[in-house]
């Protein structure tokens, strides 16, 4: 299968579909750092800029057109301007591009807020546009935590095909139509001890004192913590290693981990899994998650049992939370190793790799049938 990717970001589609033997005909991205990541990993793939300027014949014919047009005009956390915003209007341009290139399949991704903006009329316009150019379609909301990632990340996916039954067969299994909801675990809560921690932000130390945090009494099954050999004496905590979806492994006596999510107002809340990654680029109050942990090593005379220390996720942890390989965004950028800020932003904007792989596998299955 040959595909073209627009609004490519750092290419979750390629990370997902390369194991299927699919090959990209072109990428299209305008963000400088994301372009640098693509040029680093895929130097032989043509890299276009503004996808609205792509014309028929510019690149090889494609079987699949994939893209996640910018979501800010549809997000409940944004201005919700819909198609009145420049970014929202790119969705209509995506449909125009599909009409020019005539792929067999279309895969489009966006935030769930697109379903409700303007009373549902904006999303209706998307589906109506696909119908106008000859595509049947199906759509479904996927939450990445149910496909192996340790974060709650809901996104709407639309799959288009000239035969709507094939599109529906990609997104819906027989089991998903039985109406049996997945079981939910009961959540316990208790008030944490006051937090005292120091956070290093490029040499600047900031302290938080006396915050009463509500924490889950159930250890999140999505976290894996391992003791790190080096120990930050100034912060008096061990650093938990990156999060995985393999389940909690207690490798140090007394280790406990709790996943926190920082909302748009900078408030910390607790979930069974880490909250959805945001694109704040590491700025306070702009919503990328944190982790609270409490370590009492058996081989130490220090007492680490009192406070829960809160720290930000590292870029590597965010890569794992999206399904990318470790260090995927750690490239040489502008002559030096990439800073954390651009890496957070690129990962927050990315699609979840396991979700894209599942959709690709379903398309392959339906095509073979």
The topology string of helices and strands comes to EHEHEEHEHEEHEEEEEEEEHEEHH
Quote the CATH topology of the largest domain.
Rossmann fold
Task: Using the 3D structure, state the CATH architecture of the largest domain.
Answer: 3-Layer(aba) Sandwich
Strand tally is: 17
Strand content: 15-25%
Classify the helix fraction into a percent range. Answer: 10-25%
Q: How many whole angstroms does the radius of gyration measure?
A: 22 Å
The biggest sheet, with number of strands, parallel, antiparallel or mixed sense and barrel status, is: 7 strands, mixed
Distance between the termini: 15 Å
Alpha-beta classification: alpha/beta
Unreliable residue stretches: 71-83, 187-256, 302-306
For the biggest β-sheet, the strand order reads: 3-2-1-4-5-7-6
Please give the count of helices. Answer: 8
Count structural domains.
2
Shape: globular
What is the H level of CATH, i.e. the homologous superfamily of the largest domain?
Vaccinia Virus protein VP39
What is the mean predicted local confidence, pLDDT?
A: 74
CATH class of the largest domain: Alpha Beta
How is this structure best summarized?
The longest helix has 16 residues, at 86-101. It contains eight helices and 17 strands. The chain folds into two domains: 2-180 and 324-368, 3-Layer(aba) Sandwich (Rossmann fold), CATH 3.40.50.150; 189-313, no CATH class.
């Amino acid at each position: 299968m040959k595909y073209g990717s627009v609004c490519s970001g750092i290419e979750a589609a390629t990370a997902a579909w390369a194991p299927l033997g699919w090959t990209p005909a072109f990428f299209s991205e305008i963000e400088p750092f994301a372009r640098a990541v693509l040029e680093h990993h895929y130097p032989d793939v043509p890299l276009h800029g503004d996808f609205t300027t792509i014309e028929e014949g510019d690149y090889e014919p494609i079987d699949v057109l994939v893209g996640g047009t910018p979501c800010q005009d549809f997000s409940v956390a944004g201005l919700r301007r819909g198609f009145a915003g420049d970014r929202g209007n790119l969705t209509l341009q995506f449909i125009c591009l599909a009409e020019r290139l005539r792929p067999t399949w279309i895969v489009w991704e966006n935030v769930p807020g697109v379903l409700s903006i303007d009373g549902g009329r904006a999303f209706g316009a998307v589906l109506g546009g696909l119908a106008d150019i000859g595509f049947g379609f199906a759509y479904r909301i996927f939450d990445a935590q149910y496909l192996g990632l340790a974060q709650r990340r809901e996104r709407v996916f639309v799959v288009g095909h000239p035969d709507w039954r094939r599109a529906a067969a990609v997104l819906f299994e027989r089991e998903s139509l039985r109406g049996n909801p997945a079981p939910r675990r009961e959540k316990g809560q208790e008030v944490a001890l006051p937090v005292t921690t120091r956070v290093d932000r490029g040499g600047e130390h900031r302290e938080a004192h006396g915050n009463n945090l509500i924490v889950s009494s159930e250890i999140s099954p999505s976290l894996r913590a391992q003791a790190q050999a080096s120990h930050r004496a100034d912060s008096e905590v061990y650093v938990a290693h990156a999060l995985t979806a393999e389940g909690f492994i207690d490798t140090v006596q007394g280790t406990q981990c709790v996943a926190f999510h920082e909302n748009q107002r900078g408030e910390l809340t607790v979930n069974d899994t880490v909250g959805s990654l945001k694109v704040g680029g590491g700025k306070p109050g702009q919503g990328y998650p944190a982790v609270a942990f409490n370590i009492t090593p058996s081989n130490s005379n220090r007492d680490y049992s009192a406070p829960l220390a809160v720290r930000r996720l590292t870029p590597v942890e965010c890569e794992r939370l999206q399904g990318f390989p470790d260090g995927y965004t750690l490239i040489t950028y502008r002559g030096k190793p990439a800073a954390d800020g651009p890496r957070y932003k690129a990962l927050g904007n990315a699609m979840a790799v396991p979700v894209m792989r599942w959709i690709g596998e379903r398309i392959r299955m339906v095509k073979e049938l």
